[in-house]
Recover the amino acids of this structure.
């Protein structure tokens, strides 16, 4: 099916109404010129370096601009990596409010029967607050140690505590996963179950998808799938200090505590970056006082601006965190603050035009053709994806000029439409070249050269694969933004 024919179902679509109004920028005191210039700067960033796939701008609780690059849509949940940590921190806030958890209690006292023997030095000093500020005393992320042990709590304590807990920041998704373990221990529920009546239902989320371990404990550091609008709602909830529709769902004190005593993060040594201004209770601070953010690997952002009563939510596939923040500060933030900004002629109509044109680029067709049938044996060649070796095996290419059908081994053919996006719904399998449900497009970009673009539907991952036929050989070039590498294999070609 082409993108125009899709009726999304299951995990590909958010089935719940969105609980926020839309408004024009001017109706809430923002110049459309600021939003136009913001979009223009986003458009200057290109994959594979930095690509922004969607954004939502909220002001005074209303959406004043949003855009989704086709084939992505507003109601398509995406796995947003460490944005998950923002939800985890809020879950702990609710547990503290309900006196189920104390920030200063020791973690070993919560799990006295799940500790290694002997207990590593300094492990007994780690508190819930240390987990939230990622000052556990461990020198690296404890997630691998957790999952290398059948008891994930015990595994967390197997990662050495080389610093005094509470004194040294190290980004640590293992700490986030421990917070989820604590929520489940103290409430008898997963974080998804716990947050559903407290956060998701009041904000109009419905029930999002959230990955969990074999015991049903949601991953605290990653694994939630939400739409950009839902990301913006979480940001607005924080901007409003836990107030929603006249109800104080989470007490204001929690939001004050989130940024009161942040862990110093200057040791990350990223020049001119907002990484360097501290990490609070599972939230990043920025160089502008009061403005905080949640972010996720690959280009996922929720930026919260309480003084301006504004939120920016962004999904993307980027190699660098910094450009989006610079674009925000230089182009959008002044408008949200109410400052005068350089005028764009006929800004309101210019904004409509920019939003309508916000689409993913297609590969540019060149001269020449491509064989109708190609069978390639890749069994002697391996490529690297996300650090792992991957054997391609046999690949068949059937191309009729309008659509490519690619068969990998014994799997069903996958479809890449020319000039359109074709949806391929497949079960996740990371031993295959195409690991999960994706949109595909294709173009003949040079004589005997076929370029494929793959965009995962529920993740922000993008890859490009180029097949080049040369006599009785075919060369495949694979590239993506996360690894910023191209791997080439030459294999024997057989035509049928």
């Amino acid at each position: 099916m082409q993108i125009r024919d899709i009726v999304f179902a299951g995990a590909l679509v958010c089935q719940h109404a969105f609980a926020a109004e839309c408004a024009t920028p001017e109706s809430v005191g923002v110049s459309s010129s600021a939003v136009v210039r913001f979009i223009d700067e986003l458009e200057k960033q290109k994959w594979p370096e930095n690509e922004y796939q969607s954004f939502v701008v909220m002001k005074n609780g209303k959406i004043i601009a949003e855009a989704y690059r086709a084939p992505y849509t507003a109601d398509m949940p995406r796995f947003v990596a460490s944005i998950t940590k923002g939800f985890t921190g809020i879950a702990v806030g609710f547990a503290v409010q309900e006196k189920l958890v104390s920030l200063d209690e020791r973690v070993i006292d919560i799990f006295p029967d799940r500790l290694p023997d002997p207990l590593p030095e300094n492990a007994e000093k780690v508190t819930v607050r240390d987990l939230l500020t990622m000052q556990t005393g461990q020198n690296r992320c404890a997630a691998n140690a957790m999952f290398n042990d059948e008891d994930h709590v015990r595994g967390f304590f197997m990662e050495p505590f080389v610093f005094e807990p509470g004194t040294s920041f190290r980004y640590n998704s293992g700490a986030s996963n421990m917070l989820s373990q604590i929520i489940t221990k103290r409430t008898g529920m997963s974080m998804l179950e716990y947050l559903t009546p407290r956060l998701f239902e009041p904000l109009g989320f419905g029930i999002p998808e959230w990955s969990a371990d074999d015991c049903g404990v949601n991953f605290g550091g990653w694994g939630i799938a939400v739409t950009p609008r839902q990301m913006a709602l979480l940001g607005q909830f924080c901007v409003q200090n836990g107030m929603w529709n006249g109800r104080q769902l989470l007490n204001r004190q929690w939001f004050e505590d989130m940024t009161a005593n942040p862990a110093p993060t200057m040791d990350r040594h990223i020049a001119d970056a907002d990484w360097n201004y501290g990490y609070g209770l599972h939230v990043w601070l920025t160089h502008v006082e009061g403005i905080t953010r949640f972010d996720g690997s690959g280009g996922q952002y929720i930026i919260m601006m309480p003084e301006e009563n504004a939120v920016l939510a962004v999904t993307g596939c980027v190699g660098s965190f910094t450009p989006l923040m610079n674009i925000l500060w230089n182009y959008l933030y002044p408008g949200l603050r109410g400052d005068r900004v350089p005028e764009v002629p006929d800004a309101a109509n210019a904004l409509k035009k920019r939003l309508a044109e916000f689409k993913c680029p297609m590969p540019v067709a060149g001269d020449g053709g491509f064989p109708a049938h190609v069978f390639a044996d890749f069994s002697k060649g391996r490529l690297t994806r996300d650090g792992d070796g991957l054997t391609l095996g046999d690949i068949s290419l059937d191309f009729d000029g309008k659509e490519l059908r690619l068969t990998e081994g014994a799997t069903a053919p996958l479809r890449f439409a020319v000039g359109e996006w074709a949806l391929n719904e497949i079960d996740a399998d990371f031993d295959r070249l195409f690991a999960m449900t994706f949109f595909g497009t294709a173009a003949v970009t040079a004589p005997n050269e076929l370029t494929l673009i793959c965009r995962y539907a529920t993740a922000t991952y993008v890859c490009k694969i180029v097949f080049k036929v040369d006599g009785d050989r075919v060369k495949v070039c694979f590239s993506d933004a996360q690894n910023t590498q191209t791997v080439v294999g030459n294999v024997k070609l057989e035509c049928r």
Residues 8-93+187-356 form a domain with the Beta-lactamase fold (CATH 3.40.710.10).
